[in-house]
Amino acid sequence: MSTSVQRFSPYINGVMMEPSSGKFFQRFDPGDKGNMIALVGDGSRDVGAAVDAAREAFDGDRSGWVSDYRLRARVLLRAADIVRERASELARLESLFTGKTIRTSRLGDIPRTAEILEFYAGAADKLLGYSQQLRNGDVTVLLRQPVGVVAAITPWNFPLLILARQTAPALAAGCTVVAKPATITPATAIELAKILEKAGAPPGIFNVVTGPGETIGAELLKSPKIDVVNFTGETTTGKMIMQNAASSLKRVVLELGGKNPNIVFEDADLEQVANAVTYGAFANNGESCAAGSRLLVQRNVRKKLVEMVSNKIRGLRVGYQLDETSDLGPLVSQQQMEKVLEYVAAAFSEGLDVVVGGRRLSGGVFDKGFYVEPTLVDQTPPTSKLFREEIFGPVLTVTEFENEEEAVALANATVYGLAAGVWSNDSRKAMRVAEKVKAGTVWVNTYYTLPVEQPWGGFKESGIGRNNTILALEHYLEWKGVYIDTQKGPMRPYYGIVLGQKQS
Ligand code: NAD
Questions:
Q1: Rounded distance, CA 415 to CA 436, Å?
Q2: Whose CA is nearest to atom 10 of ligand 1?
Q3: Most exposed residue of 208, 322, 438, 480, measured as fewest CB within 10 angstroms of its CB?
Q4: How many whole angstroms from 101 Cα to the centroid of ligand 1?
């Protein structure tokens, strides 16, 4: 399939410019690797200009962005409408670059992006502070003011959705943004910049620097002109981000890896579990921080559930990502495919029971891209690297447990703590387990539904802070206490501590 080659390069002060480096990377279709789909400008030398644009737009507030909350509300609301109007074009672009199926983009990423923009449009004029009259009659007023310039560094698996999640609350709060999308998936970040501008955002409010993370990300972190870094990506990168952000004490929000358990008790509705487990493990090709990649199941029902889930997996259709009938598409890159295949090879070398899948697909369209069979590995012990490490691909492991205590111990036996599912018809048991599992999100009798009204973020090495909901606004707002003296006369009792008795 041939597609026209588009150019995506730094978008600064409302203009997509030629990169100062003069360099472009080629991006190929992950489902058809001979097909070049884009030239991506290396913005390594444009970080300073992007940061300056955002800084000036904030500090000068010439456009009224910082002070006019109604302007911000209108822009975000219009942007949501434009995302909906352009939904099919955006969905196609997102799938083409990432390898996620067109149904995933059309039914998931794009409408959810519009909802996020809409949600924070509604928050822009409700950034209430508060006040208190003190017992001496004075008044303290707490103002909430935007922090300043936000760097949003995003991964390749949900390029538009995660960028919206990180930046819509920042924009609602009155901050300005420099976005750094993943090197291989810059397209919809540039589109979001254009959409915001069309919706009325003044130039400089939302800037994008395309290109490699090691140089651009590092530069953003060094800049004293950036106040907040919101990063989504690997835990190892997140640790580096936190260290580098310390040099100028930037606020840091981190959404990192996950190794999420679905805990299934024998009294659960197994038909529903089988659907949700299959969906949760293989949605977005399994390239999701929220993937329910560990199935923990009570001993008596393990065999039955493994058979049910395996049958569902056998029915999944892997194919080209823009094909309406594909349930899974190609993985995002050769590098990602090789990483996933290494884990599958480890399953074989560890002598584990690979019940379904376990191979790179070949023949026909499969030879053209990075297609891996959805895979289920039964009886995976907690000592296996497949149990402990984030694979970030279509691989589901199964481990059995005896009782509630063992289920919780297994669920918590990784460094991650992003999400979990608990399945039981006994609501008290489900609640007990939900409380004990160390995860930022626990789904009870469902899996992987994540509206903007649900907070998202991790315990342990899955991150710091929460995105989504009104909680996310906190990252972008400062509290300022203004103390107003209401009393008459030149002295106050506390001045006497220094001025002494004689002057009072
Ligand atoms: P990554 O850490 O490799 O890259 C993320 C972003 O950081 C990219 O834009 C990259 O260019 C940039 N980057 C790379 N090196 C950098 C550096 N030294 N300094 C600053 N920025 C740098 O992650 P990825 O491979 O794009 O995404 C996959 C990972 O993201 C997985 O671990 C996944 O679990 C995680 N993730 C987490 C969530 C969540 O909500 N918790 C959501 C999606 C993805």
A1: 15
A2: 213
A3: 480
A4: 21
Q: What percent of the chain has pLDDT over 70?
A: 99
Q: Tell me the per-residue pLDDT of 295-326, one tens digit each, with 9 for 90 and over.
A: 999 999 999 999 999 999 999 999 999 999 99
Distance from the CA of 295 to the center of ligand 1, in angstroms?
A: 25
* Average pLDDT in the chain: 97
pLDDT exceeds cutoff 80 at 101 = yes
Q: Which residues of 330-366 are buried (b: 16+ CB within 10 A; e: fewer)?
A: bbbbeebbeebbebbebbeeeebebbbbbebbeeebb
Pairwise CA distance, residues 321 & 40, whole Å: 21
Active-site residue flag, 180 = yes
pLDDT over threshold 80, residue 356: yes
Distance 157 CA to ligand 1 centre (A): 9
* 4 contact partners, CB below 8 Å, separation of at least 6: none
Of these residues, 289, 312, 373, 461, which one is catalytic? 289
List, for residues 28-74, the tens digit of each pLDDT value. Answer: 999 999 999 999 999 999 999 999 999 999 998 999 999 999 999 99
11 exposure class (CB count in 10 Å sphere: 0-12, 13-18, 19+): buried
What pLDDT is recorded for position 25?
97
Residue 426 Cα to ligand 1 middle (Å): 38
Residue 474 designated active-site: no
Ligand 1 interacting residues, C-beta cut-off 6 A:
153-157, 162, 180-183, 213-214, 217-218, 232-234, 237, 240-241, 255-258, 289, 390, 392, 418, 458, 463
- From 158, 234, 235, 331, give the residue whose CB has the most ligand 1 atoms within 8 Å, as the site to mutate: 234
Please report the pLDDT score of residue 502 as a whole number. 62
Report residue 75: phi and psi, to 5°: -60, -45
350 counts as catalytic = no
Residue 229 · residue 249 · CB < 8 Å: no
pLDDT of residue 501: 65
The β-bridge partners of 228 are 150, 251
Q: How would residue 233 be classed by pLDDT, with cut points 50, 70 and 90?
A: very high
